[in-house]
Amino acid sequence: MTEAIREIYWNVGEGPGSLSLYLCALVALGVMTWGILRDIARWRAGRPDARIERLPARAIEALAQVFGQKRVLRDRKPGSMHALIFFGFLALFIGTDIIAVEEDFTVPLIGPDAGRILVGGFYQSYEFILDTMGLVLLAGLIWATWRRYRTKPDRLNNRGTDLWVLATLLYITGTGYLLEGLRLANQVIGGATVYDQAWALRSYFGYAIAAIFRVIGLGSGSIVGLALHSFFWYTHMLVTFAFVASIPFSKYKHIFYTPINTFFRDLEPKGALMPIPNLEAEIEKDEPSLGVATLADFTWKQRLDFDACMRCGRCQSKCPANAAGTELSPKFLVTKMNDLMRGEPIMLRDGTVARVHPNVAASSTSEAGEAGKPADAQQQYTVIKGDSETLPLYEHGLFTENELWSCTTCRACMEECPAMIEHVDQIVDLRRNLTMIQSEVPPGVKRVLEGIERAGNPWRLPQRERTAWAAGLDIPTLAEKESVDVLYWVGCAPSYDDRSKRVARTMVQLFKRAGVDFAILGDEETCTGDPARRMGEELLYQQQAQTNIETMHQYKFKKVVTTCAHCFNTIKNEYPQFGGHAGLDYQVIHHTDFLAQLVAEGRLKPTEPVDERVAYHDPCYIGRYNDIYDAPRNVLESIPGLELVEAPDWNRERAMCCGGGGGNVWMEGWGKKGVNVIRLEQIQKAEPQTLAVACPFCMVMFEDAAKNTGVGDTLARKDVAELLLQSLGSEPTPPAQANDS
Ligand code: SF4
Ligand code: SF4
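Above: inputs. Below: predicted complex with iron/sulfur cluster.
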């Protein structure tokens, strides 16, 4: 038996083999580099956005996402499919690199004996590992092809580039095995065919193929076998370099752009929208530019987002607006802008295709019939006259009213997206332009913004009625006490909405039962501005934020406790952008978290059984935005007799929005079905007697859904605080001097 060894240019000859290989490599790398540089130039045409702080944290997370496939594996089945392709491809890539290092560096530098890497035991292990990982890759590719072209889920829409990606990888992997089989069956080393050497068995899959070749007469130096080997060798090489060259021009671009996008992801708290830089100075200009009206208005990072999208549709599959049948799909939001940015036909949500071209006549006769022709000849094709960068997007129907306002800003898309694309900021930026520049807002939005501006609340009710809910409860205000342990931030909904007022009164009873030293701002409290910000009215938001921050700075307190998920998020995560002292002078705590602490400390003792089967709905601004999943459940689980159940599949970070976020609590439904109704149906699958909520907006939305669907009293709707109070019985109130620091 001879020593195991790999001859690189066997059968094709070192001269012609290496010459064609280096030539193709040069061309492919040149084309790829040109394509990437062109893409980088496109990103750089966007507005500035500072994303270079905390570089080590960025790098660590990007590596964990890429090599740990963290986000990808969240969706188990397609995630596993992608992981098979990723790790199989990675192993073969490393294997090919080892050959290149041996051929181009170690052998020329150290000599053919000492410089050979693929020899002996190492070579045998190498062959075994690569044969195995090739099968892993093949399995992933077959799975992906089956999924995309046979069982195709709704969230996928196929394009020609998808076929290119799968076909090239299948060809490269398949011919890799055929080449191996033909080599083992025909190559002679030390006077014996490799197939007959024991070490050839390490390449077990190639060995099996070699056995077939021998049976059909293509082994042992057969002329046809050798010719076939040459053919596969050259086409394998050509397709491989075609793949390399096509990276920036096809879906392969995600190999580079998705990790880069992950590296530049937003490191601010998840609940904080990006402020508009120099807002007041911009407003003073004759022609202010606020938000996004054209492609050129997006930041470089948002333009990178567009290129990083791999059209997997995960965002769309979890989007409540999409489920409700609105015109919004977060996937199409991104892909439309990517098509526009790249000057390609724009695939629209309704199945039609549009193309932006400076010359309509030229475009509609030649390009629409060639490059721009949709796959389906019956598909409607529209040509929009204009420049892709400066074309007003909304005016030309590339975004619609229904699409932009039906977003509940729930963040489900962002949480699912394996490319870390920031859809919510994109949507809010588009809304900002509509609201602040174009004044193109739905009536519901207009009413809310007027209400906040004139009355300090979205319901447009008088400020003097803000504390009516507290009548008879003897609640101190901060103006009276100046310094307390807890500032109870009531919020507009618990101040004005009848159902939510009961939750605020419950909270006061719980504070008193636990002996919490608390006060409210009373008439000094005004809307946090959260709805205004999500509706794109950044100036009004910042004015509300400034007012509230200045009010809060007058007093001393250690904690701010809110019953509203939106107030909680904005005071905690967004007010610090404008001088708020959350995390410095005081902590901001959601009421479920605070109640969980009081129960854990024994200051509230749930003793009375509440014999109810309860499903908890995670509000987006508590769950996905602030990762509070356990505290509300801990409170519920502390209640004797209460059975906690979960909405199957749609709970915790995957809980669907109630439909009220992003200002939608005040808007008419945009879809065929209410998001609140869909969510209620998901929850009812757990067969609860009671639905527990932790945000007044959720309460409003579920009360509405229960009324409209006839669920009525068959499913009670209670805040977590109300269930807790129900179980306290007549336990004595702890001493008032309890310390909340
Ligand atoms: S934030 Fe929610 S509603 Fe808006 S696009 Fe994303 S998933 Fe859809
Ligand atoms: S935006 Fe993200 S989740 Fe949506 S299709 Fe693109 S890569 Fe997939």
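The two ends are 79 Å apart (CA to CA).
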